[in-house]
Write a structure and sequence with these properties.
heterodimer; A: 421 residues; mainly alpha; 3-stranded mixed beta sheet; two-stranded antiparallel ribbon; 18 helices; globular; B: 368 residues; 6 strands
């Protein structure tokens, strides 16, 4: 799927003769003859995604998607948020080859940024900027759209601050340091209700009554009532469209980044740090950019997620989320946007609804006791999925051609990262 | 990029970059503040300081046992075995079963069916001393055996086929196994904390003003130190230990010298697993409770200990374990237990930033 022309590509293709590859080869031939597919397919996918409420939630196919697979509004929203997270992590892990085991830190930071700038936490203040609440509430209330941007900015700064001392470490030490930050940041939020006497995060009680997105009266009237004044928990479609739009922006940025000078530098660093450095790629700056950009998407996702859930608790940002997002990236195919999207949709569906659905299908089978609960096995299933994936298809479901070539090289040791910078 | 600049100059002109100097100054100031804080506490209440120190050393020796498993494996195949902490957790559960149900149990995952081998080891706080000693020994033995088998099986199934893959691949497999083991624990026992009766001897060895040191604290050390001596002997003076050290230094060369590398690596995992099992038994008996998600956090702490001492370095892991136990005890004793996680991970990050090779220097495979 990737457009990266690579000299190793044909070799890698010959080596694996699975059905999937031959389908891909014929698809590629077909696509070469029909240039319009290059924009036609993405457009069709976008249209399908935006019209999902009309054909998936209700309408002709609802019995499969809404009833059968359980993809309702909630699940749909969560899936989109996780696609954003996975695409953000893809920049760090997939493009730049930096293993980040603490990505949840940025997700949490994004959510708490919303808490700081869009809730009544600091109720001795009274700052307002274009917020769409019905009445004038105490606390800092900025417009949701401003807060989303702020969340990205805060996360980018945090990414640079975290990355600056640590990105010089080699591969698995970096993984451990990021893991450490992934543990520290939620811990700080948990204990943040009493930092030198100030309540910065409301501690374990968490933040509730958060601001929701909205367009205000003026835009509502100007658009003829299409744009809602403020989103509610009853009408979930605007939420879905919003997060879908944010996701599309993420995809677009990801695509453009991949083909940019920075993207090529990332891939060079991933493939061989020393060679890249010798070719004049500034290692630290390149890695810092990857880390910061990955963090930005984590922040966006965190802000919109916090607003939708309408509650931010330190316990919701556990190591498991970091791992689940990493699993999405790996199962889908590191470095390949379409693979990552597919992996994120599959895994988040399994996580939020699919496993429960499968569990209920199993307990419907005659002979299985009705108190069978699949929730107990969730982590075991995830673990097994990871292990099986790594054993049989370490490059992911839909790997990028280039990535596949790296794996096919086989020499291993030095391909991902091993330079002791 | 720093190396490119410095390489062109003669070595005597090499200067530290400004960022390094800033980092070191910050580090020195932090170290000085911590030292001052400790001395202040020691002078203010020496008995409390002694008590906290003893708790730190006792907990630290458990960390040391777990850390050794990480460091052994990392030293030989450069893999952070994330499943190790959860293996330790299964060791605590095994001990729990031996004390509470009096049987050695094999959880048959994914069903919640358990095979049990009766040992007659069920004990409570009021059992006779003979029964208690028998139970403790059985706990140690079977817990070590159990964790050893798990660790070796994981290595055979998951890590061995991936030895030539990029290092990210076995690392993710390790995370996968960690999840699986956690789930085994969850299905085997339940989600809540699993208590067991205190069968360690009670009573104090000495007490000085407010500080006490009990027999149960002593048992922890009394089990740990012989294990450490045995391990040290095994690695330094036996053929298998020699093979281990050779494999750790250079896998290819040692296989050319006729060392069975696969078997040596399995042996290393067996050693690590046995130590995790012993640590699990001691932990369950000493702390008196365990939980299915205990392994993840404790495993991370133990890994921190291994890095602290210098990964791959056996004495380093022990030193790191004790230092980590002390850090934890001082944080909880003189500051606030809520911040322990933050403090420990900050220490980890500080070490990796300032001295990645650890206190005693790392020992990892060469030439890679």
């Amino acid at each position: 799927m990737s457009d990266q022309a690579s000299p190793q590509a044909p070799k890698a293709q010959n080596r694996s003769n699975s059905t999937l590859s031959s389908w891909r080869a014929s698809y590629r031939r077909y696509r070469k003859q029909h240039k319009w597919l290059g924009w036609g397919i993405p457009l069709a996918v976008v249209v399908l995604a935006f019209s999902y409420p009309w054909w998936g939630l209700e309408g002709p196919l609802a019995f499969i998607f809404n009833d059968g697979l359980g993809i309702d509004n909630d699940t749909l929203f969560n899936m989109s948020v996780y696609v954003m997270l996975a695409l953000g992590l893809n920049v760090v892990v997939g493009y730049a080859g930096l293993l980040d085991l603490g990505y949840v830190a940025f997700f949490a930071l994004g959510a708490y940024t919303l808490g700081w700038f869009g809730s009544g936490l600091f109720n001795n203040l009274d700052w307002h900027f274009l917020d769409t609440n019905a009445s004038r509430l105490p606390g800092i209330h900025l417009s949701f759209w401003v807060v989303v941007l702020l969340a990205g900015a805060v996360c980018a700064i945090a990414g640079v601050l975290i990355g600056w001392p640590t990105l010089r470490l080699r591969g698995d030490y970096l993984a451990i340091v990021t893991l450490g930050f992934g543990e520290i940041i939620p811990d700080v939020f948990r204990n943040g209700d009493d930092i030198a006497g100030h309540n910065l995060t409301n501690g374990v009680r968490g933040l509730t009554l958060l601001d929701r997105p909205g367009f205000g009266e003026t835009l509502h009237d100007a658009s003829g009532g299409i744009l809602p004044v403020r989103y509610t928990s009853l009408e979930l479609r605007p939420w879905y469209f919003t997060v879908l739009a944010m996701m599309l922006i993420t995809v677009f940025v990801n695509l453009r980044l991949r083909d940019s000078k920075m993207g090529r530098a990332w891939i060079a660093v991933r493939e061989d740090e020393i060679a890249a450095s010798a070719m004049g790629v500034p290692l630290m700056r390149t890695k810092l950019w990857a880390y910061a950009i990955g963090a930005i998407f984590g922040g966006f996702a965190g802000a919109v997620y916090g607003s939708f859930i309408n509650g931010i608790f330190p316990t919701s940002f556990s190591f498991q989320i970091s791992v689940i997002v990493l699993v999405m990236v790996i199962v889908g195919g590191m470095g390949n946007i379409w693979g990552v999207i597919a992996g994120a949709m599959l895994i988040s569906w399994l996580n939020f609804r699919g496993l429960d659905k499968i569990g209920s299908w199993i307990s419907d089978v005659p002979g299985v006791s009705s108190d069978f609960s699949i929730a107990k096995y969730k982590f075991g299933i995830f673990g097994a999925l990871l292990v099986i994936m790594m054993l049989f298809r370490p490059e992911g479901l839909i790997p990028s051609t280039r990535r596949k070539a790296e794996f096919a090289e086989g020499e291993g040791q030095a391909t991902l990262y091993d330079a002791r910078a | 990029m720093a190396s490119a600049e410095t390489a062109s100059r003669p070595s005597f002109e090499r200067r530290l970059p400004t960022s390094q100097i800033i980092l070191w100054v910050v580090g020195a100031v932090l170290a000085a503040l911590i030292g001052y804080w400790l001395i202040k506490n020691a002078v203010e209440s020496p008995d409390r300081f002694l008590e906290v120190t003893l708790i730190g050393v006792t907990n630290g020796s458990i960390y040391a046992l777990v850390a050794l498993g990480y460091t052994l494996v990392y030293g030989i195949i450069e893999l952070i075995n994330f499943a190790h902490g959860d293996n330790f957790m299964l060791g605590t559960f095994q001990t729990n079963g031996i004390v509470n149900d009096g049987s050695f149990q094999i959880p048959l995952f994914p069903t919640s069916f358990v095979l049990a081998l009766p040992l007659g080891t069920a004990a409570t706080a009021s059992s006779s001393s003979g029964q208690k000693i028998y139970t403790i020994l059985m706990c140690l033995f079977f817990s070590m055996l159990f964790c050893m088998v798990i660790n070796v099986s994981i290595e055979r199934i998951g890590y061995k086929p991936l030895r030539n893959q990029p290092r990210l691949v076995p690392l993710i497999t390790a995370i996968g196994f960690s999840f699986i083991l956690q789930d085994v624990g969850l299905v085997w026992k339940d989600a809540g904390p699993q208590p067991l009766p205190n069968i360690l001897p009670t009573g104090n060895i000495f007490h000085w003003r407010g500080a006490t040191y009990g027999w149960n604290d002593f048992i922890v050390i009394a089990v740990t130190i012989p294990l450490l001596i045995a391990l040290s002997y095994l690695v330094r003076s036996t053929r298998s230990g020699k093979a281990m050290r050779a494999t750790a230094q250079d896998m290819d060369a040692s296989s050319m010298m006729g060392i069975n590398v696969d078997r040596t690596i399995s042996f290393t995992f067996a050693l690590g697993g046995a130590l995790a099992g012993a640590a699990g038994a001691i932990y369950a008996l000493y702390i008196g409770t365990s939980k299915f998600d205990l392994g993840f956090r404790l495993g991370l702490f133990a890994f921190t200990a291994a890095v602290l001492g210098g990964i791959g370095n056996l004495s380093g892991a022990v030193l790191g374990g004790v230092v980590l136990g002390l850090i934890q005890a001082y944080t909880e004793g003189f500051w606030d237990a809520r911040w322990t996680t933050t403090v420990i991970f900050s220490v980890l990050i500080a070490i990796l930033v300032f001295r990645p090779s650890g206190l005693l220097g790392e020992q990892v495979p060469e030439g890679q």
